[in-house]
Amino acid sequence: MVQLAKQNWQAERYAATANFVSALGSAVFDLLAPQAGERILDLGCGEGALTERIASAGADVVAVDAAPDMVAGARARGLDARVMPGQSLSFEREFDAVFSNAALHWMHPPEAVLDGVRRALKPGGRFVAEMGGQNNTAAIMVGIAAVLARRGFDARRYFPWYFPSATAYRAKLEIAGFRVVEIAIHPRPTILHSGLEAWLDNFTEDFFAPLADPKEARAELIALLQPTLCDETGTWIADYVRLRFHAILDAK
Ligand code: BEZ
């Protein structure tokens, strides 16, 4: 069954306070190495900052995202962006490459996503992506679990993400019919220029929405994390861990 996170995506807020997500996407963009004339699907495009970069390389890009407000933001850039959850891709053998940055971890179940990517690609096409990997934002996750537990909630019930290890995701890619060229975990401490509060606004609604007093719980979480994630200059640095890979669809 397709599961959608409850996060209320707001393109304007995201562009103002989470633009580091696309700004730090150069490694996966370089791995994609888009060529002029290629037809490329950007899966989970958000408000389209990286889609625009791929289009600037001369590729013919289609962008999809489950969040209508994000798709509206991408369309405002003049992109061909469509509302479509990554678990129900409706394309058949039309793309030279499928690209994704910081989106696959929101999509459950991963098998449905891989099935759609396989169908969307031409034989021999490539799937190049970066997502949260095992241990991603672990300190924040443990903090959220502690704050929720104190209020009688089990955070595991609300966990909207999938952060696999390289071994686990390689196996899923191979089962889905891909040959893995490279896959690896990359720890990437990430400066949150807009602070932890803005990060929580952008990404953690699934956890805090059920609480009677989410504001108080968030304040407790911030106090709990401050000694480990905030440096002496007041800069918040989150413990991001990326899983980046390049896989090829076996030509049949
Ligand atoms: C990520 O991109 O790794 C991420 C984004 C939001 C919440 C958790 C992880």
Structure description:
With 252 residues, the chain is an alpha/beta fold. The chain has a domain at 11-136 and 161-192 and 239-249: 3-Layer(aba) Sandwich (Rossmann fold), CATH 3.40.50. The chain has helices at residues 11-17, 20-23, 26-32, 49-56, 68-75, 110-120, 138-149, 166-175, 195-203, 205-208, 214-229; strands at 39-43, 60-65, 80-83, 95-101, 121-132, 178-192, 236-249. It has a seven-stranded mixed β-sheet with strand order 3-2-1-4-5-7-6, with helices on both faces. Helix 6 (110-120) links the parallel strand 4 and strand 5 (121-132). The protein is globular, with a radius of gyration of 18 Å. The model has no long low-confidence stretch (mean pLDDT 95). It binds benzoic acid.
Structure in a nutshell:
With 252 residues, the chain is an alpha/beta fold. It is 38% helix and 25% strand. Helix 7 (138-149) packs antiparallel against helix 11 (214-229).
Which structural class is indicated by helix and strand composition?
alpha/beta
- The gyration radius over C-alpha positions equals 18 Å
What best-fitting shape do the alpha-carbon axes yield? globular
- Give the helices and strands as they follow along the chain: HHHEHEHEEHEHHEHHHE
Tell me, what is the CATH class of the domain at 11-136 and 161-192 and 239-249? Answer: Alpha Beta
Described by strand count, sense and barrel closure, the largest sheet is: 7 strands, mixed
CATH superfamily of the domain at 11-136 and 161-192 and 239-249: Vaccinia Virus protein VP39
How much β-strand is present in the residues?
A: 25-35%
Q: What is the β-strand count? A: 7
CATH architectural category of the domain at 11-136 and 161-192 and 239-249: 3-Layer(aba) Sandwich
Per the CATH scheme, the topology name of the domain at 11-136 and 161-192 and 239-249 is Rossmann fold
Distance between the termini: 28 Å
Instruction: Name every ligand kind in the structure.
Output: benzoic acid
Low-confidence stretches: none
Helix content: 25-40%
